[in-house]
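Query form — protein Putative multidrug resistance protein EmrY

QUESTION: What is the three-dimensional structure of this chain?
INPUT:
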Amino acid sequence: MTEQKKPPYGIIAILFTGAFVAIFNQTLLNVALPSIMGDFEIDASTAQWLVTAYMLVNGILIPASAYLIQRYSNRSIFIVAMSLFATGTLLAAVAPVFSVLLIGRMIQASGAALMMPLLMNVMLAAFPVEKRGQAMGVFGLVMVVAPAIGPTLSGFIVEHYSWRVLFWIVLPIAVVPLALGIFKLKNLTFQDRNISLDTGSLILSTLGFGGILYGFSSAGTMGWTDPVVMTTIAVGIVSLIIFIFRQLKLDEPLLQIRIYKYPMFALSSAISVVVSMSMFSAMILMPIYIQSIKGISPINSGLLMLPGALVMGIMSPVTGRLFDRFGAKVLAVPGLLIVVLTTYMFSQLSIDSSFVNIMLIYTLRMFGISMVMMPVMTNGLNTLPMKSYPHGTAINNTLQQVAGAVGSAFLISIMNARTESAAKDLALSGTPPEQILNMAMLEGINFSFFVSTFIALVALLLALFIKKPTRPVTEAEKEIVYKQKQVTE
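ANSWER: The structure tokens for Putative multidrug resistance protein EmrY are given below.
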């Protein structure tokens, strides 16, 4: 009864295509923001809402994904998610004013938010434990390569065409998996029709994660002492604390916080959060260094980061196979050692650092991260009972969103503070005024990377405690596997 059927690769391929376009779209507008600002005559803080709002919607909806995945079929969720995504893409492409573009972007995000948790849960259901590393490695390829290609393609298109072309390119790529999903997709997971949604938890989750994401995302530009930033972060933290206590009391929580009683899941979650914070340092700080200090064009800055993304893409399936054979610790420890060393190397940048040298360090850093993220996450999920998979994936994805926002805001604020103090010191030392800005900003970026080195070091120390989880399959899980096999036949 527990013997696994051959995984339905055709169905998984449809889900992969949908997830790829949803994740690819997340970073597509980063390079295009200046062009959008010019067309709609808006300032940078207004345009930034296209990125912030997308992340906010993700942070709000992902916690609810555990309920949705348990309550509804993967086919229904996929069709609704891709329909929302395609609708938002079309609306954004034809937007006559900025507000319509922002609404379209948020509708896009509401569909994209469900794709990652959905795909991860289908992968966990379709593959036995001993083959999950390989499967999740391929999943990691989508998760890493898609957002990395976005800025490079965006830079090329914006340089030669209108930013609207970005959405017209994404639209057919979204419609194809939607059509395939309607006609070809079958259900792979077992639903619990009796499960209920706790509205209070959903409201607290929205206030908690939404407040924290918005507050930390705004802190980098508005400052930590801004009343809006302080208020939203405070509301977010208080709401999140109440949300956690509420989850511990409910029989059917929105997010099953009790899964943190499994030590390896708790450890993997902590490592993922710390690595996400460190990883975002390069994603945020490198474009500032490359474009503002080195004067390299947006398309070339995208090309500089492309080899790192390709290396991660190539390595994801390889690390998946190695994970199945050797476990997470053998990969995570050397991987994090590479991340620590390369992050420190970035703290030693100079105005004269060569393009090739920067690209090699960045690529090596991405190689290290490829050995960490998916193996550690899969190791933690393998600890959980089958019924807790939706909660595990929802918690991991939510915390990564929050860690990215917190890490970005923290490192940008450190960079700004260091830049300001360095500029004063340089002015007092008699440095020519035309050189002060670049030299001060370089000092700020280097110091932020230095702090990020210690963040990565924390993850390395945590990785020393990783163990390969062993968990017996319960009779209830055997029954679920049996029902899932019947559903797919």
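ADDITIONAL NOTE: The radius of gyration is 22 Å.
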